[in-house]
Amino acid sequence: MEWTGARYADTPTVEVRTWIDAAPERVWPLVSDIGLMPALSDELQAVEWAGDVTAPAVGARFVGRNRNEALGEWATTSHIVECEPGRVFAWAVDDPDHPSAVWRFRLSPRDGGTELSQWMQMGPGRSGLTFAIERMPDKEQKIVFVRLRELERTMTATLAGIKQRAEA
């Protein structure tokens, strides 16, 4: 069987959405609280602000420590690239001009609550996944596909945790 999925150089993306029975003003403090995220993720183990920063703002940085059974343990420095309270919170991983990934939460008022989406783009910068691909280049599309599905599951759980907290 021939695999016909995306390649890493295609900067593939994944997005999940949920509706939350709470206003964006209630949801925003949850999505922009980097300290909450490890409690909502199996992979993200710890997060801390870098430098003198203690709140999200464009240009602020934070360090995340991750663990994945297949990829091992690693730390990254993320740079906030979008921060509009009540609307969008996004960060680029490692180099903001050539990130290994870009992540974004988007909040939109809808039906008396909030539509919350979490979006992620792989690459174009190097990541732990590129090392796996270099070891098995003939399996690149499968590696990317499996990682996207893994991230989709994690992101779905993250949104469920935010929803539960916002509606409580």
TrEMBL record:
It comes from the Bacteria. This is Cyclase. It comes from Amycolatopsis endophytica.
